[in-house]
Design goal:
Blueprint lengths: L1 H4 L8 H18 L7 H8 L3 H10 L4 H18 L8 H7 L5 H12 L3 H4 L3
């Protein structure tokens, strides 16, 4: 683990990588809507180097950026389907989930779920 914290090579056994990957995924899930969430912030919060986080995620065939985007989209989909978020505009929901623009959100949402945010909207 010290080697990983210093940015060394990923020499951790597969089981340890799985534990690290799970911690990364959990952290991203819990902080997905933080506007400044990125691989550096994830790594810093978990006590590893950004390079190590990238290596672990690469071994899992993903990236921090993809995980963050997917989690944000999942939160947005839940909010769109929730009656308690029905008074918020789609743009407000997108912004609350960390998306910088309504257009980029709508494009990503359609790509991920095969429908527009409006189609996913409750009521």
């Amino acid at each position: 683990m010290c080697l990983a914290a210093e940015g060394g090579n990923d020499s951790a056994p597969t089981g340890q990588r799985a534990t690290v990957e799970a911690a990364i995924r959990r952290y991203i899930r819990e902080h997905a809507c933080d506007r400044d969430l990125d691989v550096v912030g994830v790594a810093r919060a978990l006590g590893w180097s950004a390079r190590y986080v990238q290596q672990v995620l690469q071994a899992a065939n993903t990236t921090a950026r993809d995980l963050i985007r997917r989690e944000r989209l999942n939160v947005a989909r839940s909010r769109l389907a929730s009656a308690s978020w029905s008074t918020y505009s789609i743009a407000e929901i997108a912004h609350s989930c960390g998306f910088g623009s309504h257009a980029s959100f709508a494009t990503a949402f359609r790509s991920e779920f095969g429908m527009t945010p409006r189609e996913a909207r409750c009521g």
